[in-house]
């Protein structure tokens, strides 16, 4: 039996299937980077400028993130390496303390929990990590490994624990006779199944899965994911499933949250997200999934450029420095076609992706020889003049001040709810292209 003291706190709060089990609101986690007097400064690239940032400026690993995980479902959290997925997971489990925001689990804000209540949370909410090799003690047999959390939470007597461990090994697709084997005697996929059995041993309701299949071969990945799905249906489990791989997310999730540079770019039900993406970052990620159909061009969007530093993230929309759909400043008098060419030019100057020769060659390459009319054209002409003299920084500054910084993408943080095309789940998209009626001055798609 479980310890009554632990059982009585969170475990007896029933949440009906489909109702919120975990509600995260405005969650923020900043890491201090203060490394003492000598290590106090760092160099940051902010657009065209190299600026000295004080190393005491925090790393904004997770910044104002809100979403809900319904009971019995899987929410997939996807994004490039370094976007804050693991930090978010560890904060939910209180393995690290949040800087701000609330984490409601079964209606209780876990940011306030301590002592027995925190122990109860750590029984009810389990985590599985990516590397099944390093998370299993090589000196222990898998039976006692699976029993360890039961022992820590005072569940069953020795005989009961062994019986339960053998049952669990079978449940996760292993042979109960393997109870006496060591981790090195198992394959990677089998070791991740041992991890699963260990997490399940304390009868949790919620499992945070942090890239659990990323170290496995694709065919083994699918088998482990299928087992996880079967166990979810059988035991009513709820998963927060973290992965950088959209194919894995598609396989396992009911709902998907797309994370970029510490914030959520888009959240929607799986089919809605894959069929009706509303954020250029999501489109770019979808475009990067290998397409088995040779007739498909597979060019739904391409991710170019580097992810900016989370110490000094871009203002407004964090994706704007890589976004192919940057919106024209509202008071700029340009046609859609002209803005497309200006955008391409600004981006190429930012990344220095061409050789600056004579002004006519540059004008030909980016504007087919005809610059936009009026003040916009004068600015482009001046920038081209700078480039022809090798003054890349001056050209970059001018273009940034005229075309990038005044854009709504730089001046306002986007947060919109859009009508879903598929199903009736709420669809959140942090992109100004989704402003009702179209963003003012927008010339994007
Ligand atoms: N303890 C820490 N101190 C300072 N910065 C940290 C710390 N942990 C993480 N970070 C930074 O926070 C940001 C988010 O990291 P995190 O590991 O959460 O991202 P991730 O999306 O899980 O990436 P990955 O898939 O590579 O693990 C990164 O810039 C990382 O360098």
Automatic annotation (TrEMBL):
<feature type="region of interest" description="Disordered">
    <location>
        <begin position="284"/>
        <end position="315"/>
    </location>
</feature>
<protein>
    <submittedName>
        <fullName>ABC transporter ATP-binding protein</fullName>
    </submittedName>
</protein>
<feature type="domain" description="ABC transporter">
    <location>
        <begin position="22"/>
        <end position="286"/>
    </location>
</feature>
<dbReference type="GO" id="GO:0055085">
    <property type="term" value="P:transmembrane transport"/>
</dbReference>
<dbReference type="InterPro" id="IPR003439">
    <property type="entry name" value="ABC_transporter-like_ATP-bd"/>
</dbReference>
<keyword id="KW-0813">Transport</keyword>
<dbReference type="GO" id="GO:0005524">
    <property type="term" value="F:ATP binding"/>
</dbReference>
<dbReference type="InterPro" id="IPR003593">
    <property type="entry name" value="AAA+_ATPase"/>
</dbReference>
<comment type="similarity">
    <text>Belongs to the ABC transporter superfamily.</text>
</comment>
<dbReference type="InterPro" id="IPR027417">
    <property type="entry name" value="P-loop_NTPase"/>
</dbReference>
<keyword id="KW-0547">Nucleotide-binding</keyword>
<dbReference type="InterPro" id="IPR017871">
    <property type="entry name" value="ABC_transporter-like_CS"/>
</dbReference>
<dbReference type="InterPro" id="IPR050319">
    <property type="entry name" value="ABC_transp_ATP-bind"/>
</dbReference>
<keyword id="KW-0067">ATP-binding</keyword>
<dbReference type="Pfam" id="PF00005">
    <property type="entry name" value="ABC_tran"/>
</dbReference>
<dbReference type="Pfam" id="PF08352">
    <property type="entry name" value="oligo_HPY"/>
</dbReference>
<dbReference type="InterPro" id="IPR013563">
    <property type="entry name" value="Oligopep_ABC_C"/>
</dbReference>
